[in-house]
Structure formats: structure tokens, C-alpha cells
Amino acid sequence: MSEKLTLFPLIILTIIIIINIPIQSSALRYPHDLVNIVADSVEPQNDAPQPKSESETQEPSSKSLPPRVPALFVIGDSSVDCGTNNYLITFARADRLPYGRDFDTHQPTGRFCNGRTPVDYLAQYLGLPLVPSYLGQTGRVEDMIHGVNYASAGAGIIFTSGSELGQHISFTQQIQQFTDTFQQFILSMGEDTAIDLISSSVFYISIGTNDYIHYYLRNVSNIQMLYLPWNFNQFLATAVKQEIQNLYTMNVRKIVLMGLPPIGCAPYYMWRYGSQDGKCIEMINDMILEFNFVMRYMVEELRLELPDANVTFCDVFQGSMDIIKNHQRYGFSVTADACCGLGKYRGFIMCISPEMACRNASYHIWWDQFHPTDAVNSILADNVWSGKHTNMCNPMNLKDLVAGKAE
């Protein structure tokens, strides 16, 4: 009963903020439409399959390997946020159950998932501990020596993307936070040692989703009249390229740039556009395909312009669609419905209560309106690391990148 009582004020607050957000187009509204909600409609959801035991959860086999690189630095959005937004005034938070229920501690951590994000699995492959969020560590060099996660839910390439949700750390601000970290390293260990650490470490960048969800698809500032999707994607790619060049001037040399997932298959958009039989919204996915194409071309340009840098592009759309199309082979039985949410495809209401969640998320591809489950994150991490299930990365996977193998 207490769960439902605490749920009701959150719903009311969310309704208030939604009502005050100007809507540019009735067909492209802000995702969290929480109008005409009745709290008593929140009931536990059931899954047809019997729950898997926790021992069946996939984990990297390289847990005890010695570190392959000194550190892992993460820049991005909610796809890799590990707790940054816990310290911000924002509606984009994952600091309460059922988020984190299948994490190691079975407690919410700020990750927008039932368990781990892809970078958590990649840290294991690299032989590193899970890296802390920038705002969640003490600021001592000892706490940052194995890497820092700067990612913030709601962040986009465009500074104001996601700002209607509240505070977030934008892409440019995250680069500045890394600059501050680098300066701390120089002061603590000397310039040569700091440069050696940074140039040998891996930088993982996963950003751009919110520039669609919270900017282009909402038609903020009439952006759709100013930019066709192709031009918008070129604008985003140019901004990312500039920031990667800024990282290069700080001696960053190993970069994994992630593409965008099939947002058109997310439960929210399938609900929003009235998808029939769980079919993805092709209009949105076409935009994402263009984005990934432009970003991959941009990476090829960078590799020519920065010959001593090793930049690789990983196409999350390709890897995700492989999982959706071959879901039975991967052990998924629910491809369209989120594990946690309400409404058709459980995409109408965001995940805000344990009662809204399914019993076992490992049968679901989607955890909530926009984010995949831990099980999907594990598969995507396998692909980034070694192309285990499908080759997502070009010109090389992360395993070859850290080994210094030629293309």
C-alpha cells in the first residue's frame, strides 16, 4: 500500500510538468504523456514464461583478467549513465526500484536498466572495475585512476536537448569535466605519466538519442522546417567530430563511438504512432539509419585526419535489429512490450513503480519506454568487444582496438 501512496505524488508532479511543456506538433509530443492516469490502475504484470534463475544471466568470462588498458572513460546519455543524474534536479532519474533490481546489489544505482549497461560488461572485458560516475566519486585521483563515467540521462549533442526534464550534463559539459579530470591527473602524477595513461585508455561515447527524442521528433523551435533529417544528422556529426578533435588535443587516442539504436522500435513510439502487431515505426528508423551512416563516414574522415588515433564506430541499430529479428535464438519471447510500464506495448507510462514491472526481464528486449534490458546490453557488449553475435563495429571491434591490431 505504501508503494502506491508514494507513487501518486510523483504522477501528479509529472502531470504538472507535462502540462506546462509547449507541444510543437500533436503527432510528435514529449514522450512522457501522463494525462488521465489513475494510480489504482497500477498492478503487477505477469509474463507467460517461467522466470529464469539468476545463474542463467550472461556475464563476460574475463572477470579476473589483468587490465588490458589503464582506464575506461564514458561519455553519453541514459544508455550508459551509472548515477550522474542522482545528483541533479531532474525527472530523468533511475534511483528507485524497479530500476537496478537485477543489478549485483539488487538496488537502484541510477542506471536506466534492470541491471547493467553495456559499459559495465565492457569494463569486465577490459579487466577493470565498474567505473564511478563523475558526480558520485570523491574527487580523489585514486578513485578516478581506472576511469570515470560522465554520462548523464537526458543529455544530447545539442546543448538544450532534454532540458525540459530538468538538469543534465550536456555532451560539451562532459568533455569539460574530462578536461578537469585530466588536469587533476597532471597535477597529481606529472604531465608525462598523465598523458601516457590517457593515450592508453579507452573512451566510449554513446550520445545522440535525446537529440531525436527530446528535440527533433518534438519539433522544438520548428526544427523540422529548418532541417531535413539528412541535414540535421550532418549538423550532429559535425558537432561530434569537433568534440572528438578536442579530445584528441588532450591525447585521447582510443575511441569507441556508438551509433543510435532503432528508436522506432521503442515501446513509446510504437504506442505513440499506433503500431499494429508490434511493427517498428519505419519513418523514425529511417532517420536513425541516416544518422548512423553519417557518423560512420565522419569516423572514416577522422581516421584519415588523425592518423595516430584509433577511432571505431559501432552500429547499435544493426546489432539491435539482429536481436529483434532473431529473438528466439537469443532467448527472448517478448519483442515489443516493455517489461516495465503501462498502456499498449507498456509504452504509454514510464517505469515509476515496482508494481508496473514484469516478473522476469530476461525474456524482454525492452526494459522501459526507451531502454533495453540487461540481457540485451550484455549481447551488445559482446558485439562491441569481439563481434561475438554480429559484427557491429567498423573498422575493428574493441578487442582488436586495445590490442593495437591493424585494420
Automatic annotation (TrEMBL):
Disordered: annotated segments: 43-67
One GO process term, biological-process aspect: lipid catabolic process
Keywords from the named record: Hydrolase, Lipid degradation, Lipid metabolism, Membrane, Transmembrane, Transmembrane helix
Transmembrane intervals: 6-23
Entry coiled-coil feature ranges: none
Keyword Lipid biosynthesis: no
Molecular function as annotated in GO: hydrolase activity, acting on ester bonds
One Pfam family from the record: Lipase_GDSL
Family from the record: Belongs to the 'GDSL' lipolytic enzyme family.
Record's protein name: GDSL lipase/esterase
